[in-house]
Structures are given as structure tokens and as C-alpha cells.
Design goal:
Its cofactor is [4Fe-4S] cluster. It is found in: Cytoplasm. The protein is an all-alpha fold. The protein has one domain.
Amino acid sequence: MATRSMASITRQAPDMVADDQDWRAEALCKNWDFKKKGDPWHPASESRIAAIEGKNLCGGCKVRFDCLIDAVQSDTRYGIRGGQTADERRRLRK
């Protein structure tokens, strides 16, 4: 699977990236009931199988791209953000 750099992603869609953090108000995970449903964005292991639920939920989020850019720019090293695991985001930064 080919991996694109974060720079190439932001060059292709600069108008999709919010300058501020307002996108967070529209995030699918904002109103997630962590007590009842657990935390699919921070699975117990880094395996692909453990990450499936969080990645699938991110796939349906309309601010996924903003979340991914924020995670890469802030060097978030754990969990699933913008539909990508920490390892996948590390590859984007290269």
C-alpha cells in the first residue's frame, strides 16, 4: 500500500484544513459514551485487528481529515486519530 506524506495531503486539500480547533465540535467521538461503550480509539494493543472498530468509526466522521492533520502536526503518539493508528501517522510524517 502506497503511503502519502502529510505535506502532499495538505497541498492537495488546503481548504479542507481548519485553521482553528472548531472542527472538534463536529467530531463523531465528541459525544461518545466511553463508560458504556469503551474506548475504541485507544485499543488494548497496537494490532490491526484491535484498531478496526476505532478506524471504522473515524471513517464515518466528517472531520476525520482535520483530526488526522491535528494528530500529525501535534505528534500524537498513541491511539487512533483521523482513522489512522500511531504507526500509520508516523509513516505520514516521513
